[in-house]
């Protein structure tokens, strides 16, 4: 899942010498064949795991949010706020699974997730469904038609902190989108078109324009959008009239901002961002993506719900999050040491951030 706020950063690409393009990497057929074979029995999602994980994360998150909003002890409020942010972040990341799953495989999960997480956090699932799958399209990844790709490694150094910090504006942007622009868009046809094309997807590529959903997708979008709009309007009304104390409202906005900030940092290291716009082979896409497997423990917090295996996910996008660890273990055991598979695994967040920062300064690692 990527930021809901896109930056017009493509014009800030560093004027450096051409780099070896990852798009020129040929497909490693042994790797692709091995990935397909080890995952034959791993494609079925486990409904019990999905529901238990999502609901537990949401309950912990909202419980901690209540403590943070009502506690008079600053230390406890801060700790509770961090717990709330991390738990609700994990719950929110199920939007990624929803965008890939066959909904009949976990009946009712999309509806339940939207009621428990998507609407309250103002990120209903339609903002990822029908958008994220384009990031996995063979001929779109890393190109100007990819909604979730920017060549960050080729841009100027100042774009990285800007890319991260803009996420803090997400709560205000989401309230504006749902409490103000959504109702207006049904009265102003031109605004409706702009809202769907530019502000109805969790994307980072400012050149991307979403096509209006059709059929069932349009129905789901309208229902989710109406529910989220009603929630945003009610939230602002309750805060303005004192039904919800302004302090509690500010804590809620702070937690949502924290969720988008940590997700933006995760997005920053989800790929190497070194492609210059050409179509890439599947192996090249894999090598431009990042795994942060065990024994590292912190990725379980900043890259939850299988996102620590982001590169592997690009090889096996239909494998549910709870089976990616098994797929990784199998591939690690059977592939030779010189296999490209091992080249996408990294130690942790600091090294990945420093690598990306060095790349923006023209330093190759």
Summarize the structure.
The protein is mostly helical and 365 residues long.
Q: What's the SSE blueprint?
A:
Elements (H helix, E strand, L loop, with lengths): L28 H10 L8 H24 L3 H19 L1 H7 L8 H10 L13 H4 L23 H7 L4 H16 L3 H10 L16 H27 L4 H23 L13 H6 L11 H4 L7 H6 L8 H11 L14 H12 L5
Helix pairs in contact: 2-3, 2-5, 2-11, 3-11, 7-11, 8-9, 8-10
Task: Walk me through this protein's architecture.
GO terms for molecular function: oxidoreductase activity, acting on paired donors, with oxidation of a pair of donors resulting in the reduction of molecular oxygen to two molecules of water. One of its GO terms (cellular component) is membrane. It holds the Pfam family FA_desaturase. Keywords: Membrane, Transmembrane, Transmembrane helix. This is Fatty acid desaturase. This protein has 365 residues and is mostly helical. The protein has one domain. The protein contains 16 helices and no strands. The protein is globular, with a radius of gyration of 20 Å. The protein starts with 28 loop residues before the first helix and ends in a 5-residue tail after the last helix.
């Amino acid at each position: 899942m990527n930021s809901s706020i896109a930056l017009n950063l493509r014009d800030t690409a560093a004027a450096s010498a051409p780099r070896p393009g990852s798009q020129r990497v040929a497909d490693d057929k042994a790797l692709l064949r091995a990935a397909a074979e080890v995952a034959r029995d791993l494609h079925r999602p486990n409904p019990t795991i999905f529901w238990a994980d999502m609901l537990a994360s949401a309950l912990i998150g909202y419980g901690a949010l209540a403590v943070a909003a009502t506690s008079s002890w600053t230390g406890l409020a801060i700790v509770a706020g961090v717990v709330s942010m991390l738990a609700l972040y994990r719950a929110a990341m199920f939007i990624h699974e929803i965008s890939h799953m066959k909904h009949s495989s976990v009946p009712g999960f999309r509806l339940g997730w939207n009621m428990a997480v998507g609407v309250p956090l103002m990120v209903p699932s339609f903002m990822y469904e029908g958008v994220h799958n384009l990031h996995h399209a063979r001929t779109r990844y890393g190109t100007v038609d990819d909604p979730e790709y920017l060549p960050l490694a080729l841009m100027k150094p100042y774009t990285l902190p800007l890319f991260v910090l803009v996420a803090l504006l997400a709560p205000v942007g989401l309230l504006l989108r749902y409490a103000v622009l959504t109702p207006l868009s049904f009265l102003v046809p031109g605004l409706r078109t702009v809202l769907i094309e530019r502000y109805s997807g969790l994307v980072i590529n400012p050149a991307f324009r979403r096509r209006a959903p059709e059929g069932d997708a349009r129905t789901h979008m309208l229902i989710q959008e109406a529910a989220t709009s009603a929630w945003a309007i009610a939230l602002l009304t309750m805060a303005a009239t004192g039904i919800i104390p302004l302090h509690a409202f500010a804590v809620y906005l702070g937690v949502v901002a924290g969720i988008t900030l940590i997700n933006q940092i995760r997005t920053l290291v989800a790929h190497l961002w070194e492609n210059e716009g050409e179509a890439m082979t599947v192996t090249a896409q894999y090598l431009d993506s990042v795994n942060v497997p065990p024994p590292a423990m912190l990725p379980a917090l900043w890259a939850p719900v299988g996102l620590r295996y982001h590169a592997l996910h690009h090889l096996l996008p239909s494998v549910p999050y709870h089976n990616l660890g098994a797929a990784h273990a199998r591939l690690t055991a059977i592939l030779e040491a010189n296999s490209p598979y091992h080249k996408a695994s990294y130690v942790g967040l600091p090294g990945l951030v420093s690598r990306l920062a060095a790349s923006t300064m023209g330093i190759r690692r």
